[in-house]
Amino acid sequence: MSRNAMEDVWRDVWNLTRGLERAESTDVLLACFFSNLPRGGIVVLIVGLNSSPNQDGLTASVLKQVLAGAEAAGAETVLVHMKERTLEACRQCDNGWGQCRQEHTCVIEDDFQALREQLHAADALVFANPVYFGELSEVAKTFLDRLRRCEAFEEGPLTGNLFLGIAAAGGSGGGIVSCQQVLERYCQHMRMKLFDMIPVTRLTREYKLESAYLAGAALAKALAASSPSPTG
Ligand SMILES: Cc1cc2nc3c(=O)[nH]c(=O)nc-3n(C[C@H](O)[C@H](O)[C@H](O)COP(=O)(O)O)c2cc1C
What we know:
The protein is an alpha/beta fold. It has helices at residues 3-18, 23-35, 58-72, 99-102, 112-120, 138-151, 176-189, 205-226; strands at residues 45-50, 76-81, 124-130, 162-169, 193-201. It contains 8 helices and 5 strands, in the order H-H-E-H-E-H-H-E-H-E-H-E-H. The chain is globular. Bound molecules: flavin mononucleotide.
């Protein structure tokens, strides 16, 4: 059965039995489902998060190229536009530490947990960020702050996963380096392995799109090479 046919069946079964209407919920399930496929195939799953409000802007276009390159190299990919998710800022529970430190979960009931599970099911994260004031976008910071609190204190599903950051500075290009530093620090705190960082400005867009495609293919190949063989 083809992947598309399997996806259709999986969606139908889930929607019929549980009555779920939100596409993102089935996306999470699909991510979990395909992440469990044997690697002999070789199926690796890469999640791309777009933290720009623009779905077709500079940030998203570089991200899409990375994912296209990864797919061409055999990876499965999922693209999430974070603007479509409901993500509250951290409440800094108690005196600054809440259950995130001991229980590694967040008290806020929004789309954070589903997105986190989507990352857990993946082999790599491509995080695309528009440079705002030399830093992360607001939705990026909101999500990464809460993720860091839940993930930083013990090894977990993200430990050792590859991370590819994209910093798109579409204005003057200023602040692109500080933004990458922030992304690098988050990657370290979340115990992920930095695979690459792609800075892009309006002036470098064309050739960065080409290199983004190559980076995606290289990421998929690196994941496949590090996956266990079918015979173990
Ligand atoms: C609030 C805000 C702050 C920004 N700060 C910077 C900046 O520090 N440096 C820069 O080069 N561009 C800056 N820009 C421009 C964004 O980087 C640019 O809009 C973004 O890269 C375009 O990505 P998009 O097409 O995905 O929206 C800023 C834009 C906004 C909205």
